[in-house]
């Protein structure tokens, strides 16, 4: 822990996330100041024409790839990369005998659609109003080529192809994917390790004042290594688990994950998930009086209600859609995902009594997040369409749905607003987890 703290160092106190352009300019500044220590290369282009930029630091034999913003609504990773770049370039000894490859932002197109909330007051409903998350088929980290029951699947995006090229070129010992949740506790996915490693990861959460999420993993088929640490499974197990739950895997996923692709190189994976807000209720293990199956069934019903509502609005305004709107594609996929997730949750047979924490997570993390995300993107779609071709019917549709969305927001802000976690604490957690993993690599310990 002392070595980790020494390398990570103090993080600047700021509650602003860097934008795509700001992080890129920061990297360019490092290259200009230290061309002998830092190099920047464009390893591909996004669908919208933005460069996918790799920043390389260090010259050690172990290759480490750190991926920022694989999901564009999760910008903590970009702030973490900015901090680590500042630390690692200050002293060659800080690179831990590794060569680091930082992918500044894997999805710059989607990230730009979220930048409206990167600065200013951070509330759950405020972020929802400027929110965007792409459909599964447009998420670069989950469309790698793989096979399923003899069928080739996965159509890599340009962003995915850029990451594939980097993986094949570097054959990394470790890939770190930086994520964040909206709300709840913090957790990690790994491909291995041991109890000391897993405890070391969750100790970073405790030190940063973030509760450890000890519920079920959100990736189907994932094993629990320790409270707050889960195994990152490969596509085959995820798909088999979905089949067992009565869900068609290819309706939920459009390709393999980065673990599937990097497995050929024996690469270890670490996924850091930290929340923007925390609430102590997520860890309340008091019995709720309801069976877990009953709680999950209620979640399934709520998912279906959101899906039906969004689908109805999309159907009524479909004649105005050009098919090119990222919000329309995202919402269509949201409906599909909600219905698939509802099927999986309704199929649960766990008869034990759910804890108060599990009940809270289902109501205000999973259902609350589903409502805010779908609602925010739907309003952005309606505003987009109104800006292109305003009409009384469209205005009435927006007014009707806006009233529903405001009720959802009011429920969240009254009953589960969460405590915003300062950005510097979140960066410290992610940076410390990365450094802890690389220190173990250097010591030839499993990660």
From TrEMBL:
| Record InterPro entries | Peptidase_M14
Q: What keywords are assigned to this protein?
A: Carboxypeptidase, Hydrolase, Protease
- Ranges where the Peptidase M14 domain occurs: 17-241
GO molecular function annotations of the record: metallocarboxypeptidase activity; zinc ion binding
Statement: the UniProt record of this protein carries the keyword Protease:
yes
Does this UniProt record's set of keywords contain Protease? yes
Q: What is this protein called?
A: Zinc carboxypeptidase
Origin species: Nocardia tenerifensis
